[in-house]
Design a protein that fits this description.
The structure holds two protein chains of two kinds.
Chain A (H helix, E strand, L loop, with lengths): L4 E3 L2 E4 L5 E6 L6 E7 L5 E8 L2 E5 L7 E4 L6 E5 L8 E8 L8 E3 L3 E5 L1
Parallel strand pairs in A: 2-11
Antiparallel strand pairs in A: 1-3, 3-8, 4-5, 4-9, 5-6, 7-8, 9-10, 9-11
Chain B lengths: L4 E3 L2 E5 L4 E6 L5 E9 L6 E6 L5 E4 L2 E6 L4 E6 L8 E9 L8 E2 L3 E6 L1
Parallel strand pairs in B: 2-11
Antiparallel strand pairs in B: 1-3, 3-8, 4-5, 4-9, 6-7, 7-8, 9-10, 9-11
Classes of the chains: A mainly beta, B mainly beta.
Chain lengths: 115, 114
């Protein structure tokens, strides 16, 4: 069964460093998302991407964040200068269609630790 | 601000017991309600997408109901097994979200004791 994959599973970085989190969505999907979960808190929406551009973003997704779909298969989240509060589990998700009863499929997440 | 609440936060049940938990969400601008099953270090697994008031869905021993007018959904597990131990997440999509992004509850952590 097709699945969303994410790499790396765990990334440790120092404050101020840039990180890139990678995702390979399911191949025929059209909508792509990043979410994050800070330990002990709810999963929060960061950004959605459709038709090669950002379609919506939350207030969390500030200028330090960017997303890209560089080659038609990968979907990346870049954090330019990490802060301690960026430590979280980051999930990528994809959805085949805009039809309301279609599932969003999630990857296993990348745990980002900023020291 | 959209608020999705789940209760209880956690529960322990004996193998063979049936259980249920609740998700409450805003009753206005409803679009869809998703249930996920999430085991640590794995991808959240999609269980159900529910869109119509009165919807009931079933997958094996797990079923869910939806009441969009009062803003709640129940997830039921019949005859719990140890492999049902996981965190169950509900997530709400509202009709103003152009890209159908989800707003999550905090989850209900279920532990099934053999």
């Amino acid at each position: 069964e097709p699945e969303v994959t994410q790499t790396p599973s765990h990334q440790v970085t120092q404050m101020g460093q840039e990180v890139i989190l990678r995702c390979v969505p399911i191949s025929n999907h059209l909508y792509f998302y990043w979410y994050r979960q800070i330990l002990g808190q709810k999963v929060e929406f960061l950004v959605s991407f459709y038709n090669n551009e950002i379609s919506e973003k939350s207030e969390i997704f500030d200028d330090q964040f960017s997303v890209e779909r560089p080659d038609g298969s990968n979907f990346t989240l870049k954090i330019r200068s990490t802060k301690l509060e960026d430590s979280a589990m980051y999930f990528c998700a994809s959805k085949e269609s805009g039809v309301r009863d279609y599932e969003q499929y999630f990857g296993p997440g990348t745990r980002l630790t900023v020291t | 601000i959209l608020n999705v609440e789940q209760s209880p936060q956690s529960l322990h049940v004996q193998e063979g017991d049936s259980t249920n938990f609740t998700c409450s969400f805003p009753s206005s601008n409803f679009y869809a309600l998703h249930w996920y099953r999430w085991e640590t270090a794995k991808s959240p697994e999609a269980l159900f997408v529910m869109t119509l008031n009165g919807d009931e869905k079933k997958k094996g021993r797990i079923s869910a109901t939806l009441n969009t007018k009062e803003g709640y959904s129940y997830l039921y597990i019949k005859g719990s097994q140890p492999e049902d131990s996981a965190t169950y997440l509900c997530a709400f999509a509202y009709s103003g979200a152009g890209s159908y992004q989800l707003t999550f509850g905090k989850g209900t952590k279920l532990s099934v004791i053999p």
